[in-house]
Amino acid sequence: MTDWSRYDESDAKVRPGRGSRPRSKVRPTHADAVAGVVIAVDRGRYTVRVTGGAADAGVAGMTSGSAGAVGASDAVVMAVKARELGRRGLVVGDWVGLVGDVSGAPDTLARIVRREERVTALRRTADDTDIAERVVVANAGQLAIFAAVADPEPNPRVIDRCLVAGFDGGMRALLVLTKADLASANALRAMYEPLGVVVIETSVRRSGGPGADAGVALLRSAVADETTVFVGPSGVGKSTLVNALVPDADRAVGRVNDVTGRGRHTSTSSVMLELPGGGWIIDTPGVRSFGLAHVDPAHFILAFPDVAAAADELCPRGCSHESAELGCELDVWASDDPDRHARIDSIRRLLASRAAGETY
Ligand code: GDP
Q1: Residue 149 CA, ligand 1 centroid: distance in Å
Q2: 146 CA distance to ligand 1 middle (Å)
Q3: Which class is 34-115 in CATH?
Q4: Which of 57, 73, 210, 255 has the most CB atoms less than 10 A away?
Q5: Does the CB atom of residue 108 touch ligand 1 within 6 A?
Q6: What is the mean pLDDT of the chain?
Q7: What are the sequence ranges of the domains in the chain?
Q8: pTM as predicted
Q9: 15 and 25 Cβ atoms separated by less than 8 Å
């Protein structure tokens, strides 16, 4: 008897046959596939950290954020996509099933036969008019947005756009305000705390360096046992903080490069780094544009459960939540509660940033 639990939709290959009816070909999934997570991508070659055991068990460990899911001795292997993956894309953070040589020995290649369902996805559109969306990173639970309080000057529109992409992708958000030795972070804090964003101010220049900074310590505990994607324009001090959190970050990336044999990872690709105490950081290159054409305001609002519940109950169907004049009832819900008003104002600002068609 066929055990259908061993098949998934990627196994069904439907091709028009000679007759009028399409023929379908069913392939067995690889029951012996081992679990891994894609930690770097370079021109069709995937660097995968083997997490051991059956693919499903590895995914369960990663999902729970358990520090024990991946051990320091796990092999790092190079892999290519197997034909059965078809046109499915793979990005850093994807959990996969591997077959073939998974020893990680030089000059070996494993095959990726399966991509597990993504729990979250950070997406961007090429620009706001081009709706071809692209997944940048998969399965991160948190998005940490880096902005400097000065040098370079913070750009709230950029922060807003990152937040829209993060909330839309199912991630919690952290705002890391760097170079707090240079200027006050209070104005930015006031803009983002109403959204439920955790705001952390860091400085590596105050006495004692990064090891003594209370903000760096807060960041360290905020990312512990989580998978957090770091985004931000270049020059804000993101690498300095990555290096403070993952002391051997360069070596970890170097090791990946040794395996690829294709030279240093340039700043054009993302890389996933394990934190010494458990958890992962996915460091992304400075993104120049963050098109948001793919974002549906109704889906986006779900990131704010209290507001989503009020909108569901009070607002007219299809409400854009832009303003009371346009029929939105959220002001009625806020009544005379200043915190609720601040929250709605911030959410409307984010929605407007999506509609504004800006990129950076
Ligand atoms: P990245 O491009 O975001 O990775 O930024 P870097 O980590 O390379 O840092 C850019 C510049 O900012 C470097 O000259 C750092 O020394 C400097 N920098 C980093 N953190 C701080 C900080 O907390 N305070 C100040 N004043 N400068 C910093």
Answers
A1: 11
A2: 11
A3: mainly beta
A4: 210
A5: no
A6: 82
A7: 34-115, 138-283, 297-355
A8: 0.83
A9: yes
